[in-house]
Design a protein that fits this description.
The complex is a heterodimer of chains A (253) and B (257). Chain A is α/β, with parallel strands linked by helices and 253 residues long. Chain A is built from nine helices and twelve strands. The mean pLDDT of chain B is 93. Classes of the chains: A alpha/beta (253), B alpha/beta (257). The complex binds adenosine-5'-diphosphate and magnesium ion. The site of magnesium ion has 5 residues of chain A, from helix 1.
């Protein structure tokens, strides 16, 4: 459902992604692992259309459409969700207002009726409960004064409310304690494990993959996918480290 | 209370008029330039004035000068939007007796070559008086928003607490904002806080909104709404507060960015 071919990106003229190719089929959860600075966040921003993350070559097809042709908000309305490594604070705007505007903007773009205030609150309560986030938190300003873990759970509440077709989750497990990790992992399963949905799950840690069991695992290094395998690849990385696994692969090739 | 001895035509060499529209003050009727409204707030009472000066006012220029005397323990509140005219100036001079309070919230919002300014002079004449002023400016085109806030604290006005905060968002290169706090303090046990910041719309927040499906136009509106809301938080009447935010936001419709 998401097909990335030979993707090259530049930031301020510096090449970051250097010919990245990857395909995620419907129903698949595909984990991306890789050393710091490899370009994992850059991949998520390039998919999300963030300004300054310039795509200089390659293509991204999302459910048959050219994703790179769409504006960032149009990508969201088309069903793409970006979980931020560092969720952004928006002073003066409450989560409830932000998410209701977002959901209704997406619905309008798809030609659907807006949700009323009451309908929206019911939905928000349900998803907050799923992620064990106090509903009171959603009445507060977006991410302002939230702890690292609260921000990540709030992001997953956003995902639950917006109900995307495809999620790119960038280190959603960072900053979470063991209990929160389980709640978030199970939230991802509940919201995104479906035959017509897909996930790119960027993580450093096997402990998230113990909960959200990936179908495929890829290693991103130096702007490319250097190796793809099944769940066992993540276990090997956990045991041996990136360098050893990548060196073994290079020796093979 | 200071009296205007004779009719004076200000120029931009006068401190309080340094950012004014020189053409306007050179050509306006001298009586208008010297006209002051007056309000007296009796001891212990509260007076609140909510005013909007919007683009559909149509005038090429507008000056509203107000002189207020607040009796002991009294409270004067003023909330205003400058959204129109080629030149708009709201000037408030407040003298505070013991334990009195002055609350001010102002928004300038405009494009083209509009020049909009708030000029306040807060005279803490006696002990224990407080004042709080919050001004927000949103401009585009070649427009300018100004805030000149002068605070005077008399020798025996101990325990004065005077705060001023100004922030501007410039939506386009070419727009500008000026802040000029001026403190004249003769007492020693005094708190005077002032802050000023001029910047652009928060690009990170705008992208975060886009990533959730909010189109740029709406994202900008929500961010500006949150930004100007600060100026009216102290306005107790909820419907008046909402009306002010909405009026200010209406002015954004003219911004074609
Ligand atoms: N906004 C930016 N400006 C300049 N360089 C950047 C920016 N974002 C990322 N980079 C650079 O791009 C490379 C990849 O970064 P990133 O995608 O964040 O890696 P990862 O998420 O895998 O740790 C790094 O060398 C980083 O310094
Ligand atoms: Mg990263």
């Amino acid at each position: 459902m998401l097909k990335i071919e030979n993707l090259h990106t530049e930031i301020d003229g510096k090449a970051i992604l250097k010919g990245l190719s990857l395909e995620v089929r419907p129903g698949e959860i595909h984990a991306i692992m890789g050393p710091n600075g490899a370009g994992k966040s850059t991949l998520s921003y390039a998919l999300g259309g963030r300004p300054n993350y310039d795509v200089t070559q390659g293509s991204v097809t999302f459910n048959g459409a050219d994703l790179l042709e769409l504006e960032p908000h149009e990508r969201a309305a088309a069903g793409l969700f970006l979980g931020f490594q560092y969720p952004v604070e928006i002073p003066g705007v409450s989560n409830v207002q932000f998410l209701r505007e977002a959901l209704n903007a997406q619905r309008a773009a798809r030609g659907e009726e807006p949700l009323s205030g009451g309908e929206f609150l019911k939905l928000a309560k349900e998803k907050a409960a799923l992620l064990k986030l106090d509903m009171e938190m959603l009445k507060r300003q977006v991410n302002v004064g939230f702890s690292g873990g609260e921000k990540k759970r709030a992001e997953m509440v956003q995902m639950g409310i917006l109900d995307p077709k495809f999620a790119v989750l960038d280190e959603t497990d960072s900053g979470l304690d063991i209990d929160a990790l389980r709640v978030v992992g199970e939230g991802i399963n509940t919201i995104m494990r479906a035959p017509d949905k897909g996930v790119l799950l960027i993580t450093h840690y096997q402990r998230l993959l113990d909960v959200v069991k990936p179908d495929r695992v890829s290693i991103l290094a130096n702007g490319r996918i250097v190796q793809t395998g099944g769940p066992e690849l993540a276990l090997r990385l956990e045991e041996e480290g990136y360098d050893a696994v990548m060196a073994a692969e290079a020796a093979h090739a | 209370m200071p009296e205007v001895a004779e009719l004076h035509r200000p120029t931009t060499r006068d401190e309080a008029w340094r950012y004014a529209d020189s053409d306007f003050i050179a050509s306006a009727e001298i009586a208008l330039l010297n006209d002051w409204r007056t309000i007296t707030v009796p001891a212990g009472e509260t007076v609140c004035e909510v005013k909007t000066h919007l683009s559909d006012d149509g005038a090429s220029g507008m000056i509203d000068r107000l002189r207020v005397h607040v009796g002991a323990g009294g409270r004067f509140e003023a909330f205003a939007i400058l959204g129109g005219g080629n030149y708009q100036r709201v000037e408030i001079e407040v003298t505070l007796e013991e334990g009195a309070h002055f609350e001010f919230g102002g928004v300038t919002v405009g494009g083209e070559t509009k020049r909009q300014e708030f000029v306040t002079r807060t005279i803490h004449a006696h002990p224990n008086a407080t004042s709080n002023q919050i001004v927000r400016a949103v401009h585009w085109g070649r427009a300018t928003g100004n805030y000149l806030g002068r605070i005077e604290v008399a020798r025996d006005a101990q325990k004065t607490d005077a705060a001023q905060n100004f922030r501007a968002i410039l939506l386009e290169r070419g727009a500008s904002a000026n802040a000029k706090p001026e403190l004249e303090i003769f007492a020693d046990d005094v708190l005077c806080a002032h802050g000023a910041a001029i910047g652009q719309l928060d690009e990170q927040a705008a992208y975060y909104m886009a990533a959730r499906g909010i189109p740029p136009q709406l994202a900008r509106k929500l961010l500006v709404q949150a930004f100007i809301g600060d100026a009216f938080v102290a306005l107790d009447d909820q419907s008046a507060r909402e009306m002010m935010v909405e009026r200010a936001l209406d002015q954004l419709a003219g911004a074609t960015l």
